[in-house]
From TrEMBL:
Record organism: Tritonibacter mobilis F1926
Residues in Co-chaperone DjlA N-terminal domain copies: 24-140
Keyword Ribosomal protein: no
A Pfam family per the record: TerB
InterPro entries given in the database record: DjlA_N, TerB-like
Protein name: Co-chaperone DjlA N-terminal domain-containing protein
Gene3D superfamilies: TerB-like (1.10.3680.10)
Domain of life: Bacteria
The keyword RNA-binding belongs to this UniProt entry's keyword annotation: no
Keywords in alphabetical order: Plasmid
Amino acid sequence: MIFKDFLDKLLAPAPAILPDEDARLALTALLVRLARSDESYSDTERDRIDRILRSRFQLDSGAAQILREQGEGLEAEAPDTVRFTRAIKDAVPYEDRTGVVETLWQVALADGKRDAEEDALIRLAANLLGVNDVDSAMARKRAESRA
């Protein structure tokens, strides 16, 4: 229950915009949830998450690894994806949510193959994040070009 206060804040009926540190943690937990969705959480996916965190948040390797490990803990305690993702939608601006969808695709494509469970989770997450189909498709294309 280490993350109880954070989850309570995130899942409040009217959550405030998350401070950067909390938004980073929520995004990281969502990336971990995606990576775990196919029951195979590989070193390749962990490495991709670390690279995304280093690039997106200008972190060094150690700080990215710590954030990923915190995200793993939060993901394990977070409620179902629907509530968790809707909470992120309410707390994160739209432009950042399209970036979330792109990073989800980057993790999904990390192992070089598309997985039905990962695809389904990304479609669900994009919808729940309020990212329209056009922006979601563009996010996938950007992620594919980086893979």
